[in-house]
Amino acid sequence: MKRIALSALAAVTVLGAVACGSNSSDHGARVVATTDVWGSVATSVAGDHSTVKSILNSAVDDPHSYEASPADAAAIADAALVIENGGGYDHWADDVLAGHKDVKTVNAYALLPPSAPGAPPANEHVFYDMATAKAVAAKIAEDLAAADPTNAVSYRANAAEFGKQTDAIADTERQIGQRHPGASVVATEPVAHYLLATAGVSDATPHGFATAAEDGHDPSPADLAAVLDLINGHHVSALVVNKQTETAVTKQLRDAAAKAGLPVVEVTETLPDGQDYLTWQRQTAEALAHQLDGTPGR
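^ thats the sequence. predicted structure below, dont judge the formating
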């Protein structure tokens, strides 16, 4: 979703008068991630050798409209390495980093393959793309190895193991499409775009509805009716819901799915309580597989 963003300029202004401290500590390099999603990836690589701080670490946080506090801005400016999603998703971190260009940064969105000329921008929810997560882990390992050479072998080994786990999750996702050729869904938001793409599950959400969701607006009556027709007519296999964004519209769609006996797959943008990145992605893929396994192919 590309919601109207709040400015982090106040935090940046406050930081302008603050001298940055050391970006290393007694416990390796200091790493700051914009969300607990990327913080978990960083922790998988850093192990016990570096400290990782996640700015957003609650299941109710909305990364799109967050406003960085002075303390957040100070943490970013003092980090040896900052992990951000990019693609406008965590714009507030970009606002801070614009005044601290010496801070080394891993931008996950920038690791996507380039879009074809004239193609629309890639979906910003790149944390659902296993190839991107693997690339982020590898980049973190190289940057931490440069900042903390003593533990370079450990960082690289951890990233390699993380990559094996993401490859296994991607295999699980691809098996979904193999079992359910032609399956399709409608989604309240395109959060799980990359999961669906890897699984070979078509997103049948009408363009107008998807665009309104991305812009943070209510859909037009016609677009809402089109989605309800897909659900009520059993023209799709499941409804995918971002459980962190509950509105009157999402409730209406949930109610329609329940009445039609259509499975609902819940997804989130930040880590569920008590889960790390790999567990979260594995369980989300398994939930999609489970729901489709109980539904006739569409």
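Residues 175-293 form a domain with the Rossmann fold fold (CATH 3.40.50.1980).
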